[in-house]
Amino acid sequence: MPRLSVWLIRASFLYLLLGLLFGALILAEKGLVFYTPVWNLFPLHVEFLLIGWLFQLALGVAFWIVPRFGKGFSRGPEGLVWAAFILFNFGILIIALQFWIAPAILIGRTAEVCAGILFVFGTWKRIKPQKA
Amino acid sequence: MPLLTRTLIKTGMICLILALILGIALALGATNGLFPAYIHLLVFGWITQLIFGVVFWMFPKYSLEQPRGSEALGWWMYALLNSGLLMRAALEPIQATRPNAFSGWALVLSAALQFASGVLFVINSWKRVREK
């Protein structure tokens, strides 16, 4: 597994843990009303589990699994995908600050879109038939 | 495909069917706290459980002696995930319509079980995500 996939997948594991923790607190709050502001974690619960866990895991596995090039950089322009990894996580973490920074969601989503575009540019040509 | 993976994927498929049936109930106008059960059966019971199963099966080997990490930990993860999710799916609608101490505390337990399953998954998979 390439180093970049290790980073993407392990980051996704961390978001899984945080997302599940927030979800568990919210569910427990539904059971025993103990601290209503726990509901403020709801957008982070969704962001961390959908974007941080599921999407990022998919990016990590895709970068690892899709066909490699025979010559040169075996997985294409890795720098683009490293930039995608950094921007993607910057976006998620900025969105996590939405209660303190007013335009956080817009900035975060923009970073995530840029990350997605970089990832697509970095892997597009690897989506090809295997050589016989 | 190892037995744990087969069990995870088949249980995930059952969650998928249950979620889709709940989707019909929601489309027919049922409310009463069913929507969270629908979403979590789909996202946690189906997609995440499917991923847990495939990760256990296909990720790089942990060691020659324990290629897939601790199988016992994997089974605990399976048991906690599904008992927590089932408890939630059954009792969350009750807590939403007729809240009582039993369903309230059961939801707290369900939250803890689901979070614990994620922790066990990460513990068992973390070292299998590594560079080659």
Core attributes:
heterodimer; A: elongated; B: 132 residues; mainly alpha; 0% strand
Describe the structure.
Chain A is an all-alpha fold. Chain A has one domain. Helices cover 69% and strands 0% of the residues of chain A. Chain A has four helices and no strands. The radius of gyration of chain A is 17 Å and the shape is elongated. The two termini of chain A are 23 Å apart. By secondary structure, chain B is mainly alpha-helical. Chain B has one domain (3-126). Chain B has helices at 3-27, 34-58, 71-97, 101-126. In chain B, helix 1 packs antiparallel against helix 2. Chain B is elongated. In chain B, 37% of the residues are buried. The mean pLDDT of chain B is 95. The chains are: A mainly alpha (132), B mainly alpha (132). The interface between A and B is medium-sized, with 25 and 30 residues.
Rg over alpha carbons of chain A: 17 Å
Summarize the largest interface: chains and residue counts. A-B, 25 and 30 residues
**Count of β-strands of chain B:** 0
Q: Name the helicity range of chain B.
A: over 70%
SSE run of chain B? HHHH
Put simply, the count of helices of chain A is 4
Mean pLDDT of chain A: 93
Number of domains of chain A: 1
Biggest pleated sheet of chain A: none
What's the number of extended β-strand segments of chain A?
A: 0
Find the structural class of chain A using helix and strand composition.
Answer: mainly alpha
Report the span from N to C terminus of chain B: 23 Å
Main β sheet profile of chain B: none
The radius of gyration over CA of chain B amounts to: 16 Å
Short description:
With 132 residues, chain A is an all-alpha fold.
Which SSEs are present, and which pair or pack?
The complex is a heterodimer of chains A (132) and B (132).
Chain A: H1 3-31, H2 42-65, H3 78-95, H4 104-123
Helix pairs in contact in A: 1-2, 2-3, 3-4
Chain B: H1 3-27, H2 34-58, H3 71-97, H4 101-126
Helix pairs in contact in B: 1-2, 2-3, 3-4
